[in-house]
Amino acid sequence: MTDLGLRLTVDGPVARVVLDRPEVRNAQTPAMWSALADFGTALPSDVRVVVVSGEGPSFSAGLDRRLIMGENDLGQEPLLSLGAKPTDEVLELIAKFQTGFSWLRRPEIVSIAAVQGHAVGAGFQLALACDLRVVTPDARFSMREPSLGLVPDLGGTKPLVELVGYSRALEICATSRWVEAAEAKELGLANIVVPADELEATVKDLADALLGPLPGAIRETKALLLGAADRTYEDQLRAEREAQDRRLKELLAALGQG
């Protein structure tokens, strides 16, 4: 899918998404989001880790500015023209855009964003869609949508609040300021900051470590953690019990004792 600016590959239990438009700092298009959604839907069941990265010195500069308004040479509809459509049609289109990102949070996979350079707007939200973020010292995050008169609508608002809290998330979005790598690590946006020449090896080590435990245990644990904020303590205890019951039954069945 290099014609869309993506390299999508599967190698056993590890899938890779590489944004491949370095000439425009991996700026994104709705066609790329559609391809990402299709890739997530078709992902083989034995894939357990997904690594998302960008070709060249930037992760992603966000939405390709040529698609915000007016004619463009990409053959895609300008974003602002959606405002002329009926509300139901607009909501359906945005829901399709969101699907290109939301599959990265599915419990059966753990997703890792390898971020260097710019992660702006849609690039920031793509990094936020991933479970873990490994970044280089030159990584810079910014939620630019409000500065363009728009809102972040690719699923980034919930994980941002979960990671940094409401007040800090509002400040980051409302000012559209840069969050540098050191601050990202301090706020919890980045799991680790590593030198650029160690990024690939660090991500591989992390992926290998994630492949160690049994997949069912990781799946159930991720589901527990994803839903924890929306449950009461008693509900979370119940969810833990039910998840453990499923695991025990699956393990017994695997041993031929179910």
Low-confidence stretches: none
Q: Got a strand count? A: 9
The description of the largest β-sheet is: 6 strands, mixed
Whole-number mean pLDDT: 94
Report, as a whole number of angstroms, the end-to-end distance.
44 Å
Secondary structure: helix percent: 40-55%
Strand content: 5-15%
Q: What is the H-and-E element order?
A: EEHEHEEHEEHHEHEHHH
What is the rounded Rg?
Answer: 19 Å
Broad shape: globular
Q: What class, by secondary structure content?
A: alpha/beta
Q: What is the overall number of helices? A: 9
Main β-sheet, spatial strand arrangement:
1-2-3-4-6-9
Keywords:
single chain, 258 residues, alpha/beta, 6-stranded mixed sheet, 3-stranded mixed sheet, 9 helices, 9 strands, 42% helix, globular
Structural overview:
This protein is α/β, with parallel strands linked by helices. Helix content is 42%, strand content 15%. The protein contains 9 helices and 9 strands. The chain has helices at 30-41, 87-102, 122-129, 157-164, 166-175, 181-187, 199-210, 215-228, 233-254, and strands at residues 6-11, 14-19, 49-54, 110-115, 118-120, 132-135, 140-142, 179-180, 192-193. Strands 1-2-3-4-6-9 form a 6-stranded mixed sheet, with helices on both faces. A 3-stranded mixed sheet has the order 5-7-8. Helix 1 (30-41) packs across helix 2. The protein is globular and about 65 Å long.
